[in-house]
Amino acid sequence: MQRFKFAVFLISDHFFGKKKLFKNRSNYYKELFETLPKNGLGKIMPIERRKNLSVKEFRDTYLKRGTPVVLEGAAKEWDCVKNWSLDYFDKLHGDDEIILFDALSKETPF
Question: What local confidence, expressed as pLDDT, does residue 72 receive?
């Protein structure tokens, strides 16, 4: 359920911008922070890096199996990649609030 909630927040932020939907996420973050120690640190695994991967190969080899892969150069023609600069990020996210915390710490800001 946490992955689903996280995905919903991520997608809504992408399409509608932060603070338009789900303005108060403190309960979600509190629940997430409480369950992280119970579930452990997670699994560390190697991730392949691929260039020029066809849609079919990506779908069959990675997407259907739920296997992560880094697609090198896949976004090189995207406007956001071409335009990345400090000014670009300042215009897009200059007013965003970012919360940093140590996930292994017993104390949390949420």
Answer: 94
